[in-house]
């Protein structure tokens, strides 16, 4: 039988330099619907463990080994990441593949309004997010050993195909907005740009910040690959089109100027300047694709909740209600 997390200290002592048990506390984080995440408190300090969820999984999903690889590759770049300490592929230890990384103290916001913060702090956080994203897309993938991190070909074309396949695998009913969106995305694929390392889920709740508002860790690399950098920018701007609050986590209807938060256009302009682009890019396709991919992801969460193996079944079912809404929002943007 696999050991519970609290009992794997001897294993980690043998695999992680400097680790000393016992593990005195295991705290499951609120985030991590896809890959359950735990903060471990041991005699030698705090660590973070991320593992695949239990149960039957889609073949290409929950790739904690890819997360470990990209964290290792980025260690000495301008992209702030935790230290990747150990990858365990032996499922007999915990029942699923997992990895351990360093614990980084940092502030994390789920609500992009940054409620209760000053305008100066909001401005600093958004500017640092922007600068970190440009730094990510400036990484020399060959130099850091990630030249083969993604398949060749048009990024958006293969991503639409991938997420359509995963959506079909977890589909629980036919949704016309999703069918219309898939058809449009397949017909309007933009030409491929230069391959860059893309995060795949770029949003504020996947980042940590120091007390001055500077990003000090980028987390949750499960969807990272080589591809079109505008996918990351589109993903973040998509998030801001959703309603504010704990469910939508967006900026819809928010007076951003009054809060010191840049508009979509201002944010895109800053990114274009930092990334060395001649013009501010058209983001209709990247934003529509981001809506589609998120709809496909939460459809998977809904299916796992219905099957009884979601990390948080109640939250998974709530999230599932957003699938048609995301598709409709994408169609509204492109029409």
From TrEMBL:
CDD domains: ACAD10_11_N-like. It comes from the Bacteria. Keywords: Transferase. The keyword Oxidoreductase does not apply. The keyword Transferase applies. GO terms for molecular function: transferase activity. InterPro entries: ACAD10-like (IPR052898), ACAD10_11_N (IPR041726), Aminoglycoside_PTrfase (IPR002575), Kinase-like_dom_sf (IPR011009). Residues 27-245 form the Aminoglycoside phosphotransferase domain. This is Phosphotransferase family protein. It comes from Pontivivens ytuae.
